[in-house]
Design goal:
The complex is a heterodimer. In chain A, 48% of the residues lie in helices and 21% in strands. By secondary structure, chain A is of the alpha+beta class. In chain A, α2 crosses α4. The chains are: A alpha+beta, B mainly alpha.
């Protein structure tokens, strides 16, 4: 294998980003194990993706810290009960008026030692079986985690299959309708199913008190598809599935409206017609 | 183990295995913002993101005995737990962005999201670097990293050949590597 070509192909990046199929992923993992030259490259990509993750850091709401600790500490207690289940040593009362004191003492000692030994053996067995219970519990847990992962993978394969099978996915580029103000957004629309995805290519943040609103044009009339939250405008090039199905649409448009939206569009910004196939 | 300001990766693993309050405080202080940032970026809904963040900490807490240092850094391990949990959530309920386009009242609540977010200068610097990437690079990295798209899905969605997706992915991350290093 030509290591340099392999690195240049971008497959290691796809591996770290988790964009490979299960088989490809396993293949790359095997190659990394086989060719130590790949390890430094993998580490550098990982480090870059860590920075990338950090660039998106956001403080969770303050109450989360205590809330999560409550959940964790409850789980901890459930796993390690505080009560002591060890058998207790029994007190043995010495008879006061013994004739053969020596004989009785010997018997008491034997009983005492015997009892302690039994307790010790029982306690040992108990803690061994406790450990086994804990071990099988954690094994069951990890099997469950694996099972969930597999189920999710199968579901995602199903989704890919559906998407692949959907030959009607159309791309509609919505261009600016305002002179000297370049704006654009793209719609990916499945004519057959009505699924609609929006990608904001270039839209300025709306002024205070205003918001963008999504429309489809059907039978020559605009149909409201909801208000677009500002953080979606800020996340340039995110692919966002719209909650409303669009059927029989002839065009898509985005307009600028007062906060919360309007029943009909007042200031259309971008518009894209659906090409007839 | 006494609580220090920062730990090495090995120390962190040992600390987490103690399952103490101090261990949790350190974990939370150090990583919650990064993990929450990822989750939020994936699910795009504050309430769902909070639920997922809780799941993520529970998973880290319970699975730390199974963490294997030979398979990679613990930081990467935690980030992947967060990404996977969030992407699973996204797929499981078809909750794909039901929040993306919202009714008016939700949007009003959303206005505060930005204000609550504290950011260190460090984060702002990193953000700027990422925003300097070409849009077609950003799209590919975002789709893979935050939406869990495979190469095939990206190729299909953006209508560009598979090979191009891969090489753009490499170019994008190469640029990030250069800039982050400076």
């Amino acid at each position: 294998m030509n290591i340099q070509e392999y690195i240049e192909s971008g497959i290691l990046e796809a591996y770290i980003l988790g964009a490979l199929s299960t088989e490809e992923h396993a293949e790359v993992a095997a190659n990394i194990a086989m060719y130590p030259e790949l390890i430094a490259e993998i580490a550098a990509i990982e480090a870059a993706m860590q920075k990338f993750a950090e660039s998106n850091a956001e403080q969770p709401p303050v109450h989360m810290e205590e809330q999560i600790w409550q959940v964790l500490s409850k789980d901890n207690q459930a796993q390690t009960p505080l009560t002591d289940h060890r058998p207790q040593a029994k007190a043995i009362v010495l008879p006061r008026q013994a004739h053969d004191v020596q004989w009785q003492r010997a018997a008491i000692w034997i009983a005492l030692v015997g009892s302690l030994a039994t307790n010790y053996i029982l306690w040992n067995q108990k803690s061994q079986s406790d450990q086994q219970v804990a071990l099988s519990r954690s094994q069951a847990d990890s099997m469950q985690v694996q099972h969930q992962k597999l189920t999710a993978t199968v579901a995602s394969f199903q989704k890919v299959k559906d998407m692949m099978a959907d030959t009607s996915m159309q791309t509609i580029v919505m261009q600016t309708v305002i002179k000297d103000k370049p704006m654009a957004a793209t719609i990916y629309w499945s004519k057959a199913k009505g699924d609609t995805y929006l990608m904001v290519d270039k839209m300025p943040m709306p002024p205070a008190g205003k918001q963008y609103q999504m429309w489809m044009i059907k039978d020559g009339k605009p149909v409201d598809m909801g208000v677009i939250p500002n953080d979606m405008i800020a996340s340039v090039n995110g692919m966002n599935k719209l909650p409303m199905l669009a059927t029989g649409s002839q065009a898509f448009a985005i307009s600028l409206e007062k906060e919360g939206g309007n029943p009909t569009p007042t200031q259309v910004c971008v518009l894209g017609k659906v090409a007839a196939i | 183990m006494p609580i220090a300001a920062t730990y090495s990766e090995e120390e962190l693993v040992m600390l987490l295995k103690q399952q103490s309050r101090d261990a949790f405080n350190y974990l939370y202080r150090q990583y919650s913002a990064v993990l929450y940032g990822i989750v939020n970026k994936v699910v795009y809904d504050e309430q769902i993101a909070q639920d997922v963040l809780q799941e993520v900490f529970v998973k880290i807490w319970h699975n730390i005995p199974q963490y294997n240092p030979e398979k990679g850094r613990i930081y990467t391990w935690m980030i992947n737990i967060a990404r996977n949990a969030a992407i699973d959530k996204l797929r499981s309920k078809g909750e794909i962005m039901k929040s993306k386009i919202q009714t008016g009242e939700d949007v009003v609540n959303n206005v505060h999201v930005g204000m609550k977010t504290e950011q260190s200068t460090d984060t702002i610097g990193l953000k700027k670097i990422v925003s300097e990437l070409k849009p077609e690079y950003q799209t590919i990295v975002n789709l893979a990293y935050f939406k869990g798209y495979t190469l095939d899905e990206i190729s299909k969605t953006l209508e560009i050949p598979l090979g191009t997706v891969k090489t753009r992915m490499r170019s994008a991350i190469n640029l990030l590597r250069q800039k982050f290093n400076n």
